[in-house]
Amino acid sequence: MASGADSTGWWDSWRCRRQISRSLNGAHDPIASLYREQLPTFIIIGAAKSATTTLATVLARHPEIQISRSMEPKFFGRHYIRGWGWYASQFPKESQRPLRGEASTMYSSSYGSYKETPRLIHHHLGVIPLIYLVRHPLRRIESHWRHWRGRIHNCPPFDQLLRSRRLRQRVVNASLYNHQWQRYRRWFPETSMLCLTTEELTADPSRSLSTVLRFLGADGSGDDLLHSGQLPQMNVAGSKGRETVPEPVWRPEIKQQTIDLIRPDSECFLRATGRPQNTWEWA
């Protein structure tokens, strides 16, 4: 028999799936339309541990842009049951900031509660700009595991990366960028999707941010958002308990198995986004 906590989790998940299904059939269109002037005009969809918080924080410095009160609302998925009033409250009415955005990395996850996220966003918000921020797949996995290990007491050890269903779904699959990219391409044209790598953002923040501002239709340049030409340090590895988690060490066989799993997807993704195949080194 399921415990009370497990039962509650199952019930919430079922309610969420049911509400999303009804929403996609148009049942919630009249409710969502009441908040049209407060809903996002763009979304940062991930990936986790790729500097999405940094990007959102920097964009919030722009006089035309507001970022949601909650850094990761996760509304078009697990938090859909919180309702449109709650989601709209994430974006206070500010006429001088007509560009509204949020950053929820779970939107590019493989969890069942986010299965319909691309379609749900498209249904209610239409074809809006989407920003997909990604990082070297292996470095992202290392950071993601370290983050989870520091916050979840029963997180499996790193050498269980491919054998643990939880690690594979939560940590490994989030580096399958092309899989996620194609999920969104089904509903959004290429012109409405911008891919940026963490490496590009950190190597040349001014240029990268200028690209993002042009994509969003905002005035100014990336230099206007930087302090002394630098990005803020957000969600560094030592925060939220992660200072107790040393950097993981790859066992050679696990590293190769992970590369064999991820590299084909990465190569497809790099081609799809117009980047050279040697963008990320695998040695």
Terminus-to-terminus distance: 48 Å
Roughly how much helix do the residues carry, as a percent range?
40-55%
User: What's the helix count?
Assistant: 11
User: What's the order of the H and E elements?
Assistant: HHEHEHEHEHHHEHHH
List keywords for this structure.
disordered N terminus; single chain; 5-stranded parallel beta sheet; Rossmann fold; 283 residues; 11 helices; alpha/beta; 5 strands
Structure write-up:
This protein is of the alpha/beta class and 283 residues long. The protein has a single domain (4-279), classed as Rossmann fold (3-Layer(aba) Sandwich). Helices cover 42% and strands 8% of the residues. It has eleven helices and five strands, in the order H-H-E-H-E-H-E-H-E-H-H-H-E-H-H-H. It has a five-stranded parallel β-sheet with strand order 2-3-1-4-5, sandwiched between helices. Strand 2, helix 4 and strand 3 (99-103) form a beta-alpha-beta unit. Helix 8 (177-185) packs parallel to helix 11 (252-272). The longest helix has 21 residues, at 4-24. It is globular, with a radius of gyration of 19 Å.
